[in-house]
Write a structure and sequence with these properties.
By secondary structure, the protein is of the alpha/beta class. The chain has a domain at 24-66 and 184-246 and 344-407: FAD/NAD(P)-binding domain (3-Layer(bba) Sandwich), CATH 3.50.50.60. Helix content is 34%, strand content 24%. It has helices at 9-12, 37-48, 81-88, 90-101, 103-113, 132-147, 158-164, 183-196, 265-268, 309-322, 366-381, 402-427, and strands at residues 24-33, 53-56, 72-73, 125-128, 152-156, 171-175, 179-180, 200-202, 209-213, 216-221, 224-233, 251-260, 277-280, 287-290, 296-302, 331-341, 348-353, 356-360, 393-394. The strands form three sheets. Strands 1, 2, 8, 9, 10, 11, 17, 18 and 19 form a nine-stranded mixed β-sheet that branches. An eight-stranded mixed β-sheet has the order 5-6-4-13-14-15-12-16, sandwiched between helices. A two-stranded antiparallel sheet has the order 3-7. Helix 2 packs parallel to helix 11, helix 3 packs across helix 4 (90-101) and helix 5 (103-113) crosses helix 11. The longest helix is centred in the C-terminal third of the chain and has 26 residues, at 402-427. Bound molecules: flavin-adenine dinucleotide. The site of flavin-adenine dinucleotide has 45 residues, from helix 2, strand 12, strand 16 and helix 11.
Length: 429
């Protein structure tokens, strides 16, 4: 049976800022390209730091992943602190580890500080292992982050079901700092806070060219231009060829979601008690949370920019697997969005030319981490030294054979799902 394709969050979000397309010439200190969480949080930090800012989006604020997201705040990386040290050096990693440990609280305190009505809930995140191998890996990850101060506990056997309502797992980590937000409202809320402090924003304004001339950057858009001292590229999974090689630094995977009809009180008592969130260790990751109306939002990896029959079947199978007690619940809507996955599953902060920075590659961990990146990008543009930033500043280096892997992406989700099924059949936790 087909299900209506519509981004659920658009129905319940706060009002969009009243924007127009850019028409004419603008001159600012900083141009931000991309109006998702990264771009909007960067713009906010910049105007607070005294810069004049123009932000443009090809479509609209929150149109990309930020308005389609599962909205789960998952405040650690897939790498241990020691792996981060090996990757970027002791000093930078220490800054990143400290920032990561505070990232969830920083997000929820931003939400309070700017008065963003985005239904924030900080009730914890259950990260469940689907196989024994995954359990061993996650046990090491959890212990390593707990050792540097993260509030993480292990759940074993029946405790997993008591905490999550899911009978599908026998082992999990519980991250008390985790939670969830309404992702489109958060994005719009950051945009409104930035506009209230002086940022200018424009919708339906793709930047089609960037050129360095007369000591400044000049952006071309269909009906206007922007002259800026500095440029922030915040285009993540929707990056075009605007900056050479940028879209070749990550794999543009698709994440698909469904939302159910509201759960009854009896169903709510058995699914995600206390409004915790859950995600698991599958390659095609299953994740779920409530919205404010007690509908369940359930997601996994998809193949195309719309939820085709195969993706819908994968979503339904996932929902039945994780919460068999609501296997027959009606699905109200489905939608899809693009995520940017880097080889090490870590975002990149690039500085490809004087006055140009880019922050992207959140690898499905963007809700807390785009704010971390937004603050870092704003700090760099305002003059912070690189070694004070939580991410190493790196050049744009395209991935080898990107053209080939890109064409294979529609096959990634079925391949990942097949491997997940085989792994689960062999070594369930
Ligand atoms: C379905 C889905 C579920 C997810 N669930 C979670 C989750 O539960 N937890 C989590 O932590 N993360 C999740 N993520 C990832 C998270 O949402 C993203 O990492 C985050 O939103 C990225 O924000 P961004 O601002 O960097 O990019 P985006 O929100 O994608 O914004 C990029 C913007 O750039 C614009 N743009 C591109 N090129 C140009 C141009 N040339 N000119 C002007 N504008 C341009 C686009 O129009 C777009 O609006 C999910 C993602 C998806 C798609």
């Amino acid at each position: 049976m087909s299900v209506r394709q519509e981004i659920h969050w658009a129905r319940t979000a706060i009002d969009a800022p009243d924007l127009s397309p850019l028409d004419g010439a603008q001159q600012v200190d900083v141009l931000v390209v991309g109006g998702g969480l990264t771009g909007c949080r960067t713009a906010l930090g910049l105007v607070e730091g005294g810069a004049s800012v123009a932000l443009v989006d090809s479509k609209d604020v929150g149109w990309g992943a930020s308005g389609r997201s599962g909205g789960q705040c998952n405040p650690i990386w897939r790498q241990t602190p020691d792996a981060l040290k090996a990757m970027m050096g002791e000093r930078q990693a220490e800054t990143l580890i400290r920032t990561t440990l505070g990232s969830a609280d920083a997000l929820f305190s931003d939400i309070r500080r700017y008065g963003v009505a985005c239904d924030p809930v900080q009730a914890g995140w259950i990260q469940a292992a689907h196989t024994r191998k995954a359990r061993d890996r996650m046990q090491r990850l959890g212990a390593a982050w707990a050792a540097v101060g993260a509030d993480i506990t292990e759940l074993d056997g029946d405790a997993v079901q008591r905490a999550s309502g899911s009978p599908a797992y026998r082992w999990a980590l519980r991250h008390s700092a985790g939670g969830h937000v309404h992702p489109l409202s958060l994005t719009r809320g950051y945009a409104q806070a930035a506009i209230a402090r002086g940022a200018r924003m424009f919708r339906d304004t793709p930047v089609t060219a960037l050129e360095r001339r007369d000591g400044a950057w000049h952006a071309t858009t269909p009906r206007g231009t922007v002259r800026a001292e500095q440029v922030v590229l915040a285009t993540n999974g929707y990056s075009t060829d605007l900056w050479p090689g940028l879209r070749q630094t990550f794999h543009p995977l698709v994440s698909v979601s469904l939302v159910t009809e509201p759960l009854s009180d009896a169903q709510q008592a058995t699914v995600l008690p206390g409004s915790v969130t859950i995600s698991d260790s599958r390659l095609a990751i299953f994740y779920a949370r409530y919205d404010r109306d007690k509908r369940l939002v359930f997601g996994c990896i998809g193949s195309t920019d719309h939820v085709d029959r195969v993706s819908l079947a994968r979503l339904r199978h996932g929902l039945r697997t994780v919460f068999p007690q609501i296997a027959d619940i009606s699905v109200a809507r489905t939608w899809a969005g693009r995520i940017a996955v880097t080889p090490q599953m870590m975002p990149h902060l690039h500085a490809p030319a004087p006055g140009v920075v880019a922050g992207l590659g959140f690898s499905g961990r963007g809700i807390a981490m785009t704010s971390v990146m937004g603050r870092a990008l704003a700090a760099k543009v305002l003059g912070a030294p690189d070694d004070a930033l939580p991410f190493p500043v790196t050049p744009v280096v395209p991935l080898p054979l990107h053209g080939v892997t890109r064409r294979l992406i529609p096959l990634a989700a079925p391949a990942m799902s097949l491997k997940d099924r085989l792994d689960t059949a062999i070594t369930r936790t």
